[in-house]
Amino acid sequence: MKVFVLAESRKARLELTAGARPYGEQVEVIVIGNDKDSAVADKIWSIPAQEGAMFEDYTETVAALLHQEQPQLLLVEPTKRCKLMAGRLAAMAGTSVMTDLIDLTEDGVGKHLVYGGAAIRKEKAATSLAIVMVGPGVLSGADEGGKGEQEVFPFVQPSHRIQVVSRAKKEKSSVDLASAKRVIGVGRGIAKEEDLGMIRELAAVIHSEVGCSRPIAEAEKWLPKETYIGVSGLMLAPEVYVAVGISGQVQHTVGMNRSKVVIAINKDKNAAIFAQADYGIVGDLYKVVPALIEQLK
Ligand SMILES: Cc1cc2nc3c(=O)[nH]c(=O)nc-3n(C[C@H](O)[C@H](O)[C@H](O)COP(=O)(O)OP(=O)(O)OC[C@H]3O[C@@H](n4cnc5c(N)ncnc54)[C@H](O)[C@@H]3O)c2cc1C
């Protein structure tokens, strides 16, 4: 079976390429411009970067490449632009896209969260090409060896083009939760924004990044939106996840339940988060967190 990989970021490209191994003996990656790091693939299809072109402008080129090479599986990074391109590629190839999978078996059965994360649906492509979007950590831990052959695939002029008028840098959170080994997730158990100082202090002591539940980012706006964890936010699998004042609603836990070790701090002994936890501390976080900082220092 031939597997193709399409990603916007180099990091996702490397992870998907390495993680593609169990799904096919031939793993090939599509790169816009040049990326020598993609040498973990058996073949790198390099599409020449076009001046002023947007990512979507390469859709016709990628479609032509897929048509020529006929892979059975296309693994795609789940960014907005990749989703847009994947949808158009699927329409051109007469197939559908399996989005935001949390698991993909070697025989192509994907697991997908439905009803806001309350249920899991299993799905499988019924066409010769399966287009599948998987987030960080889902395909981790696979072999990274590839032949790294390179071939240039010529750019195909898009039929409907949007012209770029200008580009400006957007200030984003510098936190990289997806690759953090330790993450503290803070929830509504925190009463005031200032109290995040205590959480950051704990994070510094245990060398961790700080993420949150959705209400902390969306409702309170105490932390950036790109740091909330769960079905509509980040799907993480760190070595250690510390849930502080988080109730453990399924919409949150699907984003952290692949963590190796989960520690939960909650004053309610019946909180659902304890069902996910390897270690649980029942207590007031305003007493537990300072005590932990004191001990761990
Ligand atoms: C379609 C949909 C998508 C959603 N997507 C997401 C998502 O991606 N991510 C997400 O997080 N949520 C998501 N939600 C929201 C989700 O359902 C929950 O409402 C949310 O996760 C709850 O956040 P929380 O645990 O911080 O708050 P709460 O549920 O209010 O829990 C606060 C917890 O803090 C504890 N607590 C309070 N005070 C203290 C104290 N002093 N010491 C210790 N513990 C204390 C309480 O016992 C409680 O368990 C989604 C909801 C819907 C409907």
CATH homologous superfamily of the largest domain, by name?
Answer: HUPs
Major sheet size, sense and barrel closure:
9 strands, mixed
Q: What share of the residues lie within helices?
A: 10-25%
CATH class of the largest domain: Alpha Beta
The general outline is elongated
Annotated CATH topology of the largest domain: Rossmann fold
Strand line-up across the major sheet:
7-6-5-8-4-1-2-3-9
First CA to last CA: what distance?
Answer: 52 Å
Account of the 3D structure:
By secondary structure, the chain is of the alpha/beta class. The protein has two domains: 2-152, Rossmann fold (3-Layer(aba) Sandwich), CATH 3.40.50.620; 177-296, TPP-binding domain (Rossmann fold, 3-Layer(aba) Sandwich), CATH 3.40.50.1220. The protein has helices at 10-19, 59-69, 80-93, 196-205, 214-219, 250-253, 285-296, and strands at 2-6, 26-32, 43-47, 73-76, 97-104, 110-114, 119-123, 130-134, 149-152, 182-186, 209-212, 240-244, 261-266, 279-282. A nine-stranded mixed sheet has the order 7-6-5-8-4-1-2-3-9, sandwiched between helices. Helix 4 runs parallel beside helix 7. It is elongated and about 60 Å long. Bound molecules: flavin-adenine dinucleotide (FAD). Flavin-adenine dinucleotide binds next to helix 5, helix 6, strand 13 and helix 7. Pfam families: ETF, ETF_alpha. This is Electron transfer flavoprotein alpha subunit. Belongs to the ETF alpha-subunit/FixB family.
